Amino acid sequence: MNRITFYLLFLIFLYLGKAEKAQAQNIHYKHIVNASAGGAGGYGSLNYEGMIPLPHLFSISGSVGISSIRLYDFTAKFNPDLLLPITINGFYGHTHKAHIGFGQLISNIVRANPVNGASDREIKSHTHFVLGYRYQKPEGKLVLGISYTPIIEFHKALRHWGGLTVGYVL
Questions:
Q1: CA 105 to CA 103: how far, in whole Å?
Q2: What are the beta bridge partners of residue 88?
Q3: Over the stretch 121-166, which tens digit does the pLDDT of each residue have?
Q4: Average pLDDT of the chain to the nearest whole number
Q5: What is the CATH number of domain 2-169?
Q6: Among 77, 88, 154, 156, which residue has the least CB neighbours within 10 Å?
Q7: Are 148 and 154 in contact (CB under 8 A)?
Q8: Which ranges of the chain does DSSP label H, i.e. alpha helix?
Q9: Where in the chain are the domains?
Q10: What is the pTM of this model?
Q11: HEC states along 12-23?
Q12: 3-class DSSP assignment, residue 24
């Protein structure tokens, strides 16, 4: 596990600890489930997000998702490629929010072993950023968003990507 992934996971666990403390202080901590078309999860992903409002129209969140590129490997067996986007987000605004974030995309891809031709899983991490807009009423249940989500694949090549998000506050 590289350092960036370690630090990102540390921040998420730290964030979750703060969220429990925030609930005890009657801060309106929100659980959000959303589906994204595009974004850090590739062609689409299902995501969970925990959001904590901060003073002066700011809020932060941590999100984790799951996605797949292919469900079947090169031998036509069910062996899905998995993508796990993990993101720390910042928001500014009341109903219409500016959105900025960063994180790691963990890819778990099936490849053919060059020596024996067997299926091997290759785990890699990629850095991603988020710059976007979110519509979310303070007391509403609907979440809508659009974002520019560049991904630095293998920490070397920049891939321009974007996403649309539809979610629900639990």
A1: 7
A2: 62, 102
A3: 889 999 999 999 999 998 889 999 999 999 999 888 999 999 999 9
A4: 86
A5: 2.40.160.20
A6: 156
A7: no
A8: 3-24
A9: 2-169
A10: 0.79
A11: HHHHHHHHHHHH
A12: helix
